[in-house]
TrEMBL record:
Protein species of origin: Nocardioides taihuensis
UniProt cross-references to SUPFAM superfamilies, sorted A to Z: UDP-Glycosyltransferase/glycogen phosphorylase
UniProt keyword annotation of Transferase present: yes
The organism's place on the tree of life at top rank: Bacteria
Keywords on record: Glycosyltransferase, Transferase
Ranges where the Glycosyltransferase subfamily 4-like N-terminal domain occurs: 18-163
Record's keyword annotation contains Kinase: no
Protein's UniProt name: Glycosyltransferase
Erythromycin biosynthesis protein CIII-like C-terminal domain mapped to chain residues: 214-346
C-alpha cells in the first residue's frame, strides 16, 4: 500500500472532496496525511485524518477579512510549498495530491520532481478561463509559478464536476472528470409539508449577513417550513426570523436534504451538487462575482433546475422566485435528471481509482485488484 499526502487550504467547500477521497483511500489500505493551514488543523483532525503541521505557510483563515489581493497571496504562497518540501524530505510519499488553487505548492512539487496529482474541486471551465485566464492567473505567471505547466506535468488531474454542467471538450490526457464528491443519503421524498433550506457560504464574504436577512424576509409568506443555517461566519442572533422559521448555526445538509422541497444557497460547487444529488431545485445567490458561484448558478439555470438571483435583490423581488421554485413545474424534472447524473458518478470512488492508477496502474475501476 502507498503513503499519500494531501495539500489543502482553509477554503471551506474545497475540503470535503479531499477528505472523502482520502477516506476511500484509507479504506483500501493506504496511509493518508493532510497538510494545510493552521486554522483548519482541528477540523481536519475531527475528520479522523492525520495532519502535518507546517511552519512556513502564511497564516490564513476563511473567516479573515476577504479581498482578491489576499486570495492571490494565499494561492501563490510559496510558504505552503516549503512546508510540502520539508515534509517530503523527512517522510517518503508515493503521491502528493494538491488542491488546484495551491499554486505555490504545485510549483514546489513540480520543481522538486515529486509525483503529484491535482484536485480540481470546481468547474474546470471556470478554473481555466476565469482563474488561470484572468488577473489571478496573470499574477501567478508574473510570480514565475507557471500554473499551466504544473497542470500539464501532473500525473493526473481530478475534476470533481458534472460533465453535463461543466463540459470539458478535448480534455488533456491526464484529466479525469470523476463527478461530484458530495455526501448523499437519498433523493428528496415527495409528500409531507414543503420544507425550504436557506444556507449561504461558510466563507466570510462581505455583506453576507444582510443578504441572508433579505432571503429570510422573502420566505415570510411561503407556505412551507423554513430552516436557516448561518454557518460559522454569521451569528444566528443577527438574523431576524419570522415566527416558525428555524435558525441554526449548523445542521448537516445531508440530514436535511431528503426531506427538502427547495434549497436556497450561494452557488458553491459542493452545496449545489449535494442539493442536485437529492433531486432538489435551487435558488442561488452568488456571494462573490470572482468566484465560481456565478458560473455554477448560471449552469443550473440553463439546465432548467433553478434560478440565479442577485446578491442585493430585495425581499419583494426574491419572494416570487422562491414561490415559483417551491411549486411544481418542469424545474423539478430537470433537477431530478441532474440528480440521477450526480448519483451515477460516485466521485470519491472514481477519484480514488484514478489516484491508484496514477500510483502504479495496479487496480481496475472500483478499487478492485485485477484478476
Amino acid at each position: 500500500m502507498s503513503d499519500i499526502l494531501f495539500v489543502t487550504w482553509d477554503g471551506g467547500g474545497n475540503v470535503p472532496p479531499a477528505t472523502a477521497i482520502a477516506r476511500e483511500l484509507v479504506a483500501r489500505g493506504h496511509t493518508v496525511r493532510f497538510l494545510g493551514h493552521a486554522a483548519q488543523v482541528a477540523a481536519l483532525e475531527e475528520e479522523g485524518v492525520e495532519v502535518v503541521r507546517g511552519r512556513h505557510a502564511r497564516a490564513y483563515s476563511r473567516f479573515d477579512r476577504y479581498s482578491p489581493l489576499t486570495m492571490m497571496a494565499v494561492f501563490g504562497d510559496r510558504g505552503m510549498g516549503r512546508d510540502l518540501l520539508e515534509e517530503t524530505s523527512v517522510r517518503r510519499y508515493d503521491l502528493v495530491v494538491i488542491d488546484c488553487l495551491m499554486v505555490g505548492a504545485l510549483a514546489a512539487a513540480r520543481e522538486a520532481g515529486l509525483r503529484y496529482a491535482v484536485l480540481e474541486h470546481l468547474y474546470d471551465a471556470y478554473f481555466r478561463r476565469t482563474i488561470l485566464g484572468g488577473p489571478m492567473g496573470l499574477n501567478l505567471r508574473l510570480r514565475r509559478l507557471a500554473p499551466q505547466r504544473s497542470l500539464e506535468d501532473a500525473a493526473v488531474r481530478l475534476v470533481t464536476s458534472l460533465p453535463e454542467l461543466d463540459p470539458v471538450p478535448d480534455p488533456p490526457a491526464n484529466l479525469r472528470q470523476v463527478g461530484p464528491v458530495v455526501p448523499l443519503s437519498a433523493p428528496a421524498t415527495q409528500g409531507g409539508d414543503p420544507t425550504v433550506l436557506v444556507s449561504l457560504s461558510t466563507f466570510g464574504y462581505p455583506g453576507m449577513t444582510a443578504a441572508l436577512q433579505r432571503l429570510v424576509d422573502a420566505t415570510r409568506d411561503l407556505d412551507a417550513r423554513v430552516v436557516v443555517t448561518t454557518g460559522p461566519a454569521v451569528d444566528p442572533a443577527d438574523i431576524r426570523a419570522p415566527r416558525g422559521t428555524e435558525v441554526h448555526r449548523f445542521v448537516p445538509h445531508a440530514e436535511l436534504m431528503p426531506g427538502l422541497s427547495l434549497f436556497v444557497g450561494h452557488g458553491g460547487h459542493g452545496s449545489t451538487m449535494t442539493a442536485l444529488g437529492h433531486d432538489l431545485p435551487l435558488v442561488l445567490m452568488p456571494m462573490d462575482g470572482l468566484a465560481d458561484q456565478p458560473g455554477v448558478a448560471d449552469s443550473v439555470e440553463r439546465a432548467g433546475a433553478g434560478r440565479r438571483v442577485a446578491k442585493k435583490a430585495s425581499p419583494a423581488d426574491l419572494a416570487p422566485v422562491l414561490a415559483a421554485m417551491l411549486a411544481d413545474g418542469p424545474h423539478r424534472a430537470a433537477a431530478a435528471r441532474l440528480g440521477a447524473a450526480v448519483r451515477a458518478q460516485p466521485g470519491a470512488i472514481l477519484g480514488a481509482d484514478a489516484l491508484e492508477v496514477a500510483l502504479d496502474g495496479s487496480v481496475t475501476p472500483g478499487g478492485r485488484p485485477p484478476r
